Amino acid sequence: MTENKIDWKLLALFYGLTFMLIREWLVPIIELTNTGHLWLFLAFVGIAFILTLIKVSWLISTVLKVVYVFLTIHYIFYDKITPTKETLSSLVSDLISNAQIIFNGYWDEITDPFRTLMFFLLLWMATYLVRYWIEVRKNIFLFYLMTIIFITIIDTFSPFSANTSIVRIMLIGLLLLGLLSIRRLNERHERPDSFNTFILLSTPLLVMILFSGALANIMPKLEPIWKDPVPFLQAFVNGEGAGGSAKSGYDSDDTALGGSFVQDDQIVFEAKVATKQYWKIETKNTYTTKGWLQKTAEDIVKVLPTGSDFEGAEEIPADVSVSTAQLEMKEKFPFIVYPYGIRRVTMDGVEELKYRETNGSYRLNVNDGEAKNYSMEFLADTYSMKRLRDTVMDDYASVEEDLSQYLQLPPELPDRVRFLASEIVAKHESVYEKTKAIERYFGRNGFVYAQTDIAVPSEDEDYVDQFLFDTKKGYCDNYSTSMVVMLRAIDIPARWVKGFAPGETIKNKDGEKVYRVTNNEAHSWVEAYMPGVGWMPFEPTIGFVGQNNIDYDIELDRDDPETPAKKEQEKKKEQEKKKQPEKKELEKKKKKEKESLSYEQLFKKYWWRIITVISVLVIASIVIYSKRSQWLPIVLIQRHRSDKNEWRSFAKSYTILLRQLDLVGLKRAQGKTLSDFAREVDTYYGGTRMRRLTSAYEKGLYGRQTTEQDWLNLKEVWEDLMKRTAG
């Protein structure tokens, strides 16, 4: 039986349907991770399939894909396609520096460009596997099943709604399975894969799938048994009901934290906004060992006309666009919830807003006590990584704002909380790195996120101490309060923030994407004061991503002569030159400094040489690999020359010969016997070598003649034929 060669138009159809299935994977991933640039990832998948369809060689295809990935990553993070010397150096340095991060196990510190590279590699591997399933296995069921499982889990346990996606997956997958089944039948009966004939045979399948899909769409459907399966499953497993636990949702009384709560799906508001936002309500400054209070020396209530800029809002450059958010309230709520960077609020029927000012943090209240539908303008802050890493504790002395209330701690706070905080940040210098170390602490030390069976501190217990050392189990209030207390314990001003998490995306009645926020999204997090930067949000709760726009400008500005670190380094060099003028001492010092350079500094200094060497090695490796059919036989002959003269060694050598023949283009067709193939090889190279080897192999394999043959002579024949294949 000969292998059925697939028609290119038919293969294009298979690839097109598979492309649609891969898109169903990418859409929720891009949306849930707030990555963006969906079309760039889809274009990569499309390019991979097109290159295969037009039969581009693997070498050219690999080069094109690598170039596309590199230029795409450059475009995403530098907003331009053509690399410059500075951006190229920064990007390559960033990708290489992640090797040390991975080696040290700090997975959460992997940079966004490297994550994007890994994602492209996964897509590359996925397209290869799909090609294998379509062209070789001729069965896509495993990929189809994985797609269904993935999208149903995402729909159930994440904010993403897959109501229409699951229908598309079912229709596309069933059609693809049916078409591949027809192709397997054609191959079994040795019929050619004519595109027109194939379409004719598959018409009944297509009609049946479309009819059943349309029928399923118009038929009435039962309501789900579980409104939200997650809390139902948790309650079932733990043997708990709603009794004895509080409901989730916003509550202004935080004096006694702790205890379990159950989910509440009551909708608070729907927000029409371009990207995910944390919705802030208020901050609190005083920790009492059991909870939080808001204490101020003077409660200043101000009146602000709706539609006017908030106090302190800076003028926005002409080339910067302001984001907008429109909120539709579904529940009576006495506060205005607002995103970071808010500039103004506009509310129909309300001329003035009252708000309480607490050292730059706003808690907005509407005059009539109930917030209505309103719109907001905001401009989220972007934080410079270079500036954050330059923050030091001594800079707090020059801060004009009185931050003492955000360093408050009760005198009865156990000392081991302070000791733990100091231990966590001991190896870090900047304020930002100290803060991030505490934020990451919970995810690396056995803490568990849970909403039920949560302890309440007794009269003589501290809420934070109990969570850090005894239970290590809790929800957002436990994590955020513990982080604020530990930051204050090491003299970093911090405050406790309350509001709502972003919510889940849905389509409203007009078909627009909105974020639905329920009482389940009630949340607390942390704001820490970075000297020279201001208040910055942090998210310590396990399972929550947080919201910070970081500008990774370290590489481009590391050599800026105005940075304090650079000035200090130059000053020390001048002092050491004065103390050690001798030439030998200076040479020793330079040598020592060179040896102590970090990998990142070495790369920055010698990056052109490193790239050149790597490029030469890659090109040389590609050339050597592409010529393996010429040098590999010589290596194999030398390797197997010392083998014993016996049947087992001969059988192994014969298998190696078949692989070498396949490598040079003499591939044994499916169904062709070894004897027929041997005659084909001898016709190509001349002589009877392959037939002699094949006859001996068949005698040993089928006739069990494994001791009576001249193995030494056969080895010589094998070596001669291997050399001929090498040219």
What is this structure's SSE topology?
Layout (H helix, E strand, L loop, with lengths): L7 H25 L5 H16 L4 H21 L6 H19 L8 H26 L3 H17 L5 H26 L6 H24 L10 H10 L7 E2 L13 E2 L4 E7 L5 E6 L1 E2 L4 E2 L6 E6 L17 E7 L12 E6 L4 E7 L2 E6 L7 E5 L3 E3 H5 L25 H10 L6 H11 L6 E2 L13 H9 L1 E2 L1 H14 L4 E7 L3 E4 L5 E6 L3 E9 L3 E5 L10 E3 L2 H4 L6 H16 L3 H13 L3 H28 L1 H13 L6 H17 L10 H12 L3 H14 L8 H15 L2
Parallel strand pairs: 1-2, 13-21, 14-15
Antiparallel strand pairs: 3-8, 3-18, 4-16, 5-6, 7-10, 8-12, 9-12, 10-11, 16-19, 17-18, 19-20
Decide which structural class fits the backbone: alpha+beta
The percent of residues in helical segments reads 40-55%
Distance between the termini: 31 Å
Strand content: 5-15%
Q: What spatial order of strands do you see in the largest sheet?
A: 9-12-8-3-18-17
Q: Averaged pLDDT, please?
A: 80
What form results from the Cα inertia axes? elongated
Show unreliable segments: 234-244, 556-567, 594-600
What Rg is obtained from the alpha carbons, in whole angstroms?
34 Å
Described by strand count, sense and barrel closure, the largest sheet is: 6 strands, antiparallel
* Count, helices: 23
Number of strands: 21
